[in-house]
Write a structure and sequence with these properties.
Blueprint lengths: L2 H19 L7 H8 L3 H16 L1 H11 L10 H16 L5 H15 L4 H13 L42 H4 L1
Helix pairs in contact: 1-3, 1-5, 3-5, 4-5, 5-6, 5-7, 6-7
Length: 177
């Protein structure tokens, strides 16, 4: 899993915690990140995302509400609402993140943490939020050079797709033979 993808996942998990438990949960963020086993870069990016979303929550909610016809924020599942805030934050306040990346990452989070229909729902709303992006469109869609693969801490793998099976490694000398 790439470091920024891991950071988005951590940000989603913690923003969901704040959504369910309230703003006082923010005090637990540093401990949450330390226990995650994520790299320093992933922890820093997750912090930027969480702080950015929390600081602009009302603005993000207004942008989502303006585009989510027939859906009030309160009717949306909490995880979808949280993913929409995270994706909207990246689309509207992160000029270094390509539109395609922000959309795809949010859609994948929806598929992974919500329902099968959430990906299409998230895509439809964020595509409209994208039109509110006030800075110039990205010049490139290449991944950030700092966005390398995130090592998985032992015992913290989220699912079988993220961890090598049977102790085998991929991409090493044995894989090239």
């Amino acid at each position: 899993m790439r470091r920024r993808t891991r950071a988005r996942e951590l940000a989603l998990q913690f923003l969901y915690t704040v959504e369910v438990r309230g703003p006082d949960a923010r005090d637990e963020f540093d401990d949450f990140l330390q226990r995650s086993g994520a790299s320093r870069f992933a922890r820093q990016f997750a912090t930027e995302l969480v702080d950015g979303v929390l600081a602009r929550k009302e603005q993000l909610d207004a942008a989502i509400s303006a585009t989510a016809t027939n859906w009030s924020l309160s009717r949306m599942p909490a995880v979808d609402r949280t993913i929409l805030r995270l994706g909207s934050y990246e689309l509207l306040h992160s000029p270094d993140v390509p539109v395609r990346v922000a959309l795809n990452e949010a859609i994948e989070l929806g598929k992974r943490y919500s329902t099968g229909q959430s990906g299409a729902f998230i895509n439809g709303i964020l595509d409209q939020v994208r039109s509110r992006r006030s800075f110039a469109p990205e010049v490139r869609d290449a991944p950030d050079d700092r966005d390398e693969e995130e090592p998985i801490a032992p015992g913290l793998a989220g699912d079988d797709d993220d961890a090598p099976s049977g102790g085998a490694t991929t991409g090493g000398a044995a894989a090239r033979r």
